[in-house]
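Annotated sample (chain length 376).
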Amino acid sequence: MEFSLSNEDNLRLNVLLAQDLKAIRINEGTMTVHALTDQGEAKVVLNPNTRDEQYLRTVKELLSLKITGSPGGYPIFIKRWTRMGHTDNTLEHMLLLGEPEAVVAVVHAQTLSHDIGVRAWWAHPTTEVAMRLMEYPEIWQGELGKELVDYLMEFLPFEERQLNIVSMVRLCLQGDILSKEEKEKLWARAKRRNPFYVGFLHSNPKQIPLSKEPSSHFDKVTDKLKTLINDNNIYATTLFELLNSDGQTWLETLKLSLNKPVDQEVVISLFIAINHYFNLPLNTLVKDGRGTRSIEIAIQHSDEICEHPIDEDLKAVINTLDSQHLPLLNAMLVLAQMGEHTLIPVFSGNDSVGTVMRKRLLPLTTPLLEKVDILM
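Output written by the structure step:
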């Protein structure tokens, strides 16, 4: 049985769709179609002549027919959209279907302009959409960025999924959007919720509101490696960065992150953060780029390449450092091999969380923390 719109709704919706619309959203609770135009927001309050669910389906069929030429709606449109490869040309159309899932598809496009981001946020302002939009530099650096961060900061205390907390903190810490006071509030929350620390671990160390003095080895090591640092030797530069104030701050955050992690997703994110911090040419040791598959192998590799350097840059650092400072380099090389694959022996075949998970992690975290302590 086919249903049709009331004459009044059909007329008003067609008049609305004749305009240059930027986005459409439907409030199913109030049975209202909202449209974003250059002049502001327009709306049509629906007058159903059948069940609300069926009536809304008919409304969406009309929108789809006018926008895409087919009443099939988002599922049909997305198939055509994908097969024809016209992704960039149809993002605007996706935002006019009144379908939340279509908006989510838009914000997951490979590229997204600030303007499309603004429209998508208006059409479906949810945590999922805000987080995805904050992944695009053009958006978080634009006018919308501050609004998205304010939204995420407001809802952060109520977020239940621990990995989302990590992502939300990481995204809010991009650039200079947050004030010093706001960063300090985030840091204070981390004392009660471990994932906050992991979010900070993903960010630039300068974003961490924690003041640490340079390592006691900093001056001597810097003096020894000065020439190599000036020549952009990557091992010398990374060791210099770890021993200075920012590096010590990052290492302290790493220690705090390793204290009472809550679930496996957060731990995996933590080790991804370690992997991203380092950018050393250890491809011969970490072939997949996602971490050596056990801490024991990483320690063995580090010992071996300190004896037999894998390239001239590493050899230059080893030949320049005093023997008392070589353990610093060795510890750095162990950390640089960490990644999500390092967790495979720990998490393979189990879904433990909390205390049980932390006990399983001890054979990995204990030697890892020993290496961190050497660098601090």
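Annotation: Confidence is low (pLDDT under 50) at residues 81-89.
Annotation: The first strand starts at residue 21 and ends at 27.
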